[in-house]
């Protein structure tokens, strides 16, 4: 039985690789791709989503979501992803028409259809999910699990305290983390252990099939930015969140109580992980701490065979 999923995304170089992986999997029934302003503005994340899914030769509802956070101004990351959001990659103009419903109405529509079995994979700020939860109070009982790329126990990549997806809209994250929906947080603690080495990138993209050069450009762009931070390989954050839904055993995780800082001057957007259970609050999140890196790399090799 395929897992019905909605992928909420802000493509984004690593989002693009994550979408390649998701659409190559026979385990996922991708009901919709919902777009959000994040790495780059909404118009471009939506265009990239349409162009990518069309390029895959696949189909899915593509629904436009929030242009920015609930309260704050959108802070983008073109310096990481390029002005287009997908580095130097040039894709043919996509042929998928935008779905008539927006992101939050699409999420609810699919949640009703799958009666509690719908999974959501979020690869960007959590704005769309928060809006859906506010507009449809019963939605929280109709989502099986949200697997989100975001947060971290110990580090930040946007401020010293906060990871980008949470930092961009901490108020939205606060709503999601308090929703009671089962959550798996694939944060920097795990993604930073999932580096894909340059020689592995070459192996993954050596097949010379119709998508090899695009996938290689995306990986190389990711690698060059990650090396600036001293990483020994490409850290494809969003792809690990997708991989964790395709094969949950690829990550090791522990349940913690996690809350979101929305007031701190220096700590806004921090996922505050109660490692030592000092609050005695019931854990609300499965936090990814480790990864089977070799299996993650193998997944990408399998992915390429699906686009032959
Ligand atoms: O911190 C990494 C996350 O922020 C990824 O989702 C990346 O695409 C950016 O959105
Ligand atoms: Ca992203």
Automatic annotation (TrEMBL):
Q: Does the keyword Nucleotide-binding apply?
A: no
The cross-references to InterPro entries, in alphabetical order and at most eight, read: I/U_nuclsd_hydro_CS, Inosine/uridine_hydrolase_dom, IUNH
User: Under the GO molecular function aspect, what terms does this record hold?
Assistant: hydrolase activity
Alphabetized UniProt keyword annotations:
Glycosidase, Hydrolase
Its domain of life reads Bacteria
Q: Which organism is it from?
A: Clostridium mobile
Q: Which residues form the Inosine/uridine-preferring nucleoside hydrolase domain?
A: 5-298
Q: What is this protein called?
A: Nucleoside hydrolase
* Coiled coil start-end: none
Known Pfam families for this protein?
IU_nuc_hydro
């Amino acid at each position: 039985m395929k897992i019905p999923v909605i992928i909420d995304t802000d493509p984004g170089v690593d989002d693009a690789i994550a979408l390649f992986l998701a659409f190559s999997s026979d385990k996922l029934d991708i009901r919709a791709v919902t777009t959000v302003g994040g790495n780059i503005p909404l118009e471009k994340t939506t265009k990239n989503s349409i162009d990518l899914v069309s390029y895959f030769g696949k189909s899915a509802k593509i629904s436009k979501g929030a242009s920015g956070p609930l309260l704050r101004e959108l802070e983008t990351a073109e310096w990481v992803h390029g002005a287009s959001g997908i580095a130097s990659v040039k894709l043919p103009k996509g042929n998928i028409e935008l779905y008539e419903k927006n992101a939050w109405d699409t999420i609810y529509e699919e949640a009703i259809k799958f009666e509690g079995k719908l999974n959501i994979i979020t690869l960007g700020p959590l704005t769309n999910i928060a809006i859906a939860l506010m507009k449809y109070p019963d939605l929280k009982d109709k989502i099986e699990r949200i697997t989100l790329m975001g947060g971290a126990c110990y580090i930040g990549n946007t401020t010293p305290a906060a990871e980008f997806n949470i930092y961009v809209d901490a108020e939205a994250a606060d709503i999601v983390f308090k929703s009671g929906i089962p959550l798996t947080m694939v944060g920097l603690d795990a993604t930073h252990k999932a580096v894909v080495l340059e020689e592995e990138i070459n192996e993954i993209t050596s097949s010379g099939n119709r998508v090899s050069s695009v996938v290689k450009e995306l990986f190389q762009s990711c690698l060059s930015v990650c090396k600036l931070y001293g990483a020994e390989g490409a850290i494809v954050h969003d792809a690990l969140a997708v991989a964790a839904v395709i094969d949950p055993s690829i990550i090791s995780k522990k349940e913690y109580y996690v809350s979101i800082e929305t007031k701190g001057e220096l700590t806004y957007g921090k996922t505050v992980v109660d490692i030592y259970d000092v609050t005695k609050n019931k854990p609300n999140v499965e936090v990814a701490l480790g990864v089977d890196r070799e299996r993650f790399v193998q997944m990408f090799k399998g992915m390429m065979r699906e686009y032959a």
